[in-house]
Amino acid sequence: MKVYADNAATTAISQHALAEMIKYYDGAYENASSLHTQGQAAADALENARTRIAACLHCDARGIYFTSGGSEADNQALIAAAHLGAKKGKRHLISTKIEHHAVLHTLDKLAKEGFEITLLDVSREGMITPEQVAEAIREDTALVSIMFANNEIGTIEPIKEIGQICRERKVIFHTDAVQAAGHVKIDIEDMCIDMLSASAHKFHGPKGTGFLYCKRGIYLEPLICGGAQERGKRAGTENLPAIMGMAAALEDACANLDAYTARVSVLRDKIIRELSKIPHAFLNGDPAQRLPNNVNMCFEGIEGESLLMMLDMFGISASSGSACTSGSLDPSHVLLAIGLPHEIAHGSLRITLSEYTTEEEADYIIEKVPGVVERLREMSPVWERMMQNQ
Amino acid sequence: MAMGYSEKVMDHFQNPRNVGKMDDADGVGEVGNAKCGDIMKIYLKINDGIIEDVKFNTFGCASAIATRSMATELIKGKPVDEALALTNQAVVEALDGLPAVKIHCSVLAEEAIKAAIKDYYDKNGIAYDADLFKESGCEHCCHN
User: Fold this and answer.
1) Annotated catalytic, B36?
2) What is the rounded (10 degree) CA torsion for A146, A150, A156, A161?
3) How many CB pairs under 8 A join A and B?
4) Under a CB-based contact definition with an 8 Å cutoff, are residues A200 and A178 in contact?
5) Which end of chain A, N or C, is more open, meaning fewer C-beta atoms within 10 Å of its C-beta?
6) pLDDT at residue A270 is higher than 70
7) Structural domain span for residue B110
């Protein structure tokens, strides 16, 4: 049996999105910047996609800028907001320790430009409180950037409350919603979000496309200079087929959100419940404020990459926060930020489901993981010591 | 192949040889640490200067398991001197190569064998050249 359980990494493209893309590759290939009739049809399609995406997230369509994906959107949001702040003498940026590297590494770059960065700690569940944000905001704070939901442990942050605080304090609020878009309800206006990043391939759209929402009135500095595409904020001929595929995928995900949440969270909870029966196993992330498709567990005494490779032999594709899976010396910065010691963080397993995941697949995961954990523990000196010390 | 591992690595990962413990070992070596995500513990049964049996336990990734399995195969039945001369490169070659970021796993295999032989020498009052047993520490891990 083949089970794809790494949907936080990427999702399978939906047939609907694929059909939309082929339509724009195969026939309607014109450049949306061309003035002839066919070019204008492409421009109309582009605006239609923008309007539909805005409707899904309840925001002004004129605030949607198409990008090459989530990383570009994060980069542009942070750099634009920071530089805008700097013009007013504001050189302080607030974020968290559990952000995606697209945010953290952009902040590193801004720190080298002289910006002061505050990275908020998170709770054991990976949660930020609105009070933490309120306390961290200073007179010279240019930006607060807090991820909507964490890509590793699935914790959903209190975005609306944080947005309200930022609105009151007149600080730009950006959220990296790459894992959340199409998976949880997002209302940009109601949640007081000024900037939001999303990526199509996380919600069954194509890879290499995404968007940045930027509230009108906030000057969006372009990262890529050239033509007047995207109202001068992002040069380069728009990837219309991918954008049309993205719009179709996001519309489907949002229309199907309640049914998806109900069905997939039941599978998620079943996997968590059953795998928690393994001795010395525990869940990472918030049990309630959690992405419907995310399971992240630690199994003490074993190392995550060998766990993944053994599951791979059984046809299960999952992920781990172990150092060995990242090619770096340290385990996941998210697992360390929630307070896990290195040796336990090495033994993490992330299983992320999708609307295509079946109950049989969830049961197969539940059937295979315990045996693999036991086999690795049998040969683990760490586990042996743990058992001796009991 | 997942992670870019060779077929031999996958074979030794899936069917590791010489896994286990030994209550009456003549030499025991343990290297690495859990913080790095890699520990190797090895047990040697030595008779007349020959490694009659070898067992290992490991906390580590697939290539950690595979390199320990191969290393123990390479020294089983061999004289202690030959085992001492085993290099991590020999283990890597026997496995048809390892991804560059995984070479440190083979270093730990070599060091664990040396640590177990040192333990055997110490327990039996056998004189040796201390330079043979210099641990490389964790530097080899810093492959970034």
Assistant:
1) yes
2) 0
3) 80
4) no
5) C
6) yes
7) 2-123
